[in-house]
Amino acid sequence: MAQKHLNNDHLVGQDDFYANVFKQFLACSKPQSCLPEYVSTHVDKLVHDSSLNHDTNAPLRVLSVGCGHGARDVHVLKAIHEQRPHIQFDYVGVDINSVLVQEAQQVFCSQHVRGYVSECQFVVAPIEDYLERLNPSSEHGTFDLILMLHCLYYIPHRKHVLAQCVDHLSPNGKLMILHQSPAGINNFQNLCNPLFEGRKCTRNLQFNSMQVEHLLNDLEVPYSMDIVNATLNVSNCFVNPHDTTMEQAYRKGLQLLSFMLERDMREESEEVKQQVLDLLSRVSVKKHHTGEYWLFHPQVFLVVSKKL
Ligand SMILES: C[S@@+](CC[C@H](N)C(=O)[O-])C[C@H]1O[C@@H](n2cnc3c(N)ncnc32)[C@H](O)[C@@H]1O
């Protein structure tokens, strides 16, 4: 069974630091509205009418795999609720990061969220362990919607977890995966990979939406796929470390690089940092009139159903 210590060699196992670098990444991501917009326009695909149980008005059961600070799950639930105001949710958020889970608990306490979330529960554990303990034949053992937003990279036994999720879908339930495409950050990671050769390396490199599709095909589960365009403002990464007026921006840039490359970039030599920046400048676009650097980072939505 997976234990948290499996992740300790990696950024994702360092609760505080990971929470900060992840939020830095979110702050630089544009547009922020990608996710709710996708959900609003695809709500029919995500929420099957017969899962609504009109007789009992039972809430829709939602599981979030790697819920993080919960804010993006709230965007998803709100977008569904806006399209289908009669829907209420029972939500379970599972994450190994206790710092982010604490924040998620606060986010879900807000009065606004309480308007459409009847019950919420948070579990600090690897998803593998949580699902292992949950019998899909038990009363609350299945979910109408499972969210897996940018989490699969970090999971050691991905195929197993995908199969577990599909097993825990209700008959019309859907698993929504949001994942990086081979372009954007994934391309940048692959370019940087040789710089870290022979050193402790992440297991996520090259794991993009194409590999997710291979796993889904191996599992023989039906799915649909959509691509959304997104960009990342990576300008802070290029701030001069010797410019004392730009200290905060420089620190944010290091956080963003750490998130993208899944290693603590504060510990890297100036030489390696410079090589990383040379590669980043090759894959990003510079707006000459503002001096900003932008990385195109298209992302992929996969909506998975139970095996027919
Ligand atoms: C990039 S963040 C995404 C968070 C959130 N889903 C969102 O989109 O805002 C990935 C999250 O997956 C969590 N995670 C990584 N491995 C996990 C595992 N085995 N089980 C549960 N959560 C995990 C991390 O702690 C982190 O919060």
Automatic annotation (TrEMBL):
The protein's name in its UniProt record: Methyltransferase domain-containing protein
InterPro entries (UniProt xref): SAM-dependent_MTases_sf (IPR029063)
Lineage top rank: taxon: Eukaryota
Organism: Naegleria lovaniensis (Amoeba)
Taxonomic path: Eukaryota, Discoba, Heterolobosea, Tetramitia, Eutetramitia
